Structure prediction request, 145 residues.
Amino acid sequence: MNQITALLITIVLFSCEPINTKKVISTDKAPQAIGPYSQAIQVNKTLYLAGQIALNPDTGQMVEDKIEVQTHRVMKNLGAVLSEAGFSFDNVVQSQVFLSDLNHYKQMNKVYAEYFSNKPPARAVVEVALPRNALVEIMMVAQKP
Prediction:
């Protein structure tokens, strides 16, 4: 095999390898991070969204202390981050829902379902202690084809 052929094969092989680029995604349409983390990180066609609680992005304050209201705010915050990266709820493949009380499951689930009318993602729901006395926190992973 001559050197030109070897060089061409090397170029083709390296051009097929994905380049893992880590890009920070941030928008003022969702609450700014309240710690040392990013709203989302995009690596190639995958978006990893940090957990969102029901903070109003304009005021930085928690919204009303009702699970339905908080779930809508969380989903709107996540939607803003998805949109900033050029993704949508249709691209979400996995989510993790954290509830301060599993008795809120039914009400949270009803609101959550409004955002995933077609092919909802894989999901886990657990009960945990949440910051700022939040009732719900949701984190997601989205993937583009």
Q: What stands out?
A: The chain is about 30% helix and 25% strand. The radius of gyration is 19 Å. The mean pLDDT is 92. The beta strands are 22-25, 40-43, 46-52, 92-99, 122-127, 136-143.
